[in-house]
Amino acid sequence: MRALRLEADQLSCRVGELADLLADVVNGGASVGFLAPFERERAVAWWRERTSAVAAGQLAVWAALDGAGRTVGTVGLAFPHPGKPNSPHRAELVKLMVHRDARGQGIGRGLLTVAEEAAAAAGITLLHLDTETDSPAEHLYRSAGWTRAGVIPDYALSPTGVLRPTTLYYKHVGALAR
Q: N or C: at which end does the chain have fewer Cβ atoms within 10 angstroms?
């Protein structure tokens, strides 16, 4: 796997592949904020909306590429709004996704490591995320040293429309991780 940080123009060029990935994970049951069935056109629109945040430096997005250069995974870091002076040290890990056909190859762990290292290099010392409770993603985060902060019941609808709890995690990176 090769991880490529996408600038706004690169994200625009890969919108189709990223949309296919997003539709695949949602329609496969992953709880990443959308309900199934999830159409490719909606996924394209969602990714296009992210372009301005990437251009403004509010969002960093990486694409995991397979040997043929096809996008098989992605992860993002959402940085706090510049108007929030009390939070320049933290970022949120968002939309860690791996295509169903590419799972079990270490792509999720690789993307997680890339995001953590990039956050530390950018001066971020605290990362946080939320994920569906009892999802396969929880094992990944725990095994990568993330700390469970708690569970919020009935937080979001699953892709099938059922209310599910979410688990909050955090991890110190960079200077605080040492």
A: C
